[in-house]
Amino acid sequence: MSKKTSRNTKGKIIVAAWKLFYEQGYDDTTVEEIIEESGTSKGSFYHYFTGKDALLSSLSYMFDEKYEELTETLPENMSAFETLLYLNKELFTMVENSISLDLLAKLLSSQLVTKGEKHLLDHNRTYYKLLRKIISKAQEAGEFTQEKSVNDMVKIYALCERALLYDWCLSDGSYSLCRYAEELLPVFLLSFKK
Length: 194
Fold this sequence. Notes:
Elements: H1 3-24, H2 31-38, H3 42-48, H4 59-71, H5 80-98, H6 101-113, H7 126-140, H8 150-170, H9 177-189
């Protein structure tokens, strides 16, 4: 199986699972329903995932798919500061509109207790690569300070996003995640400016 076919199959399973999780809830979704919705086979499902619980860590895949989609449509005339705020707004809009609060909370809590890979911290993800590219270009152009390394700035940005997501879950989604991020994220990012 080619790498692209493999990724497409895994992606179909993940997208189908998260669609069903959102529509029916995690507990009310079965592996059989995920297989049917994805148009794949039981063998394919178990090739990529040990069970339904293993799909919790795949939310980072959904986030990266969103970032890849956004990368293709980023306006070229935006500053790095504006680009980071735009990416955050688009991601958090997706989170608010298509990922249930309970499911997001399960993912975030699973990352706290897992002994295995912490997918949200995997620096090989599209998310981290894109952030490094944006911040590096901004430093080269003199928009962002060089007093902090690119990796430190990426870490700060990712930390801010995770903090906003955790707080939103802790608050039971009692406020708009997007509006809250629009107010707070620029405050954090001001330390990046030259």
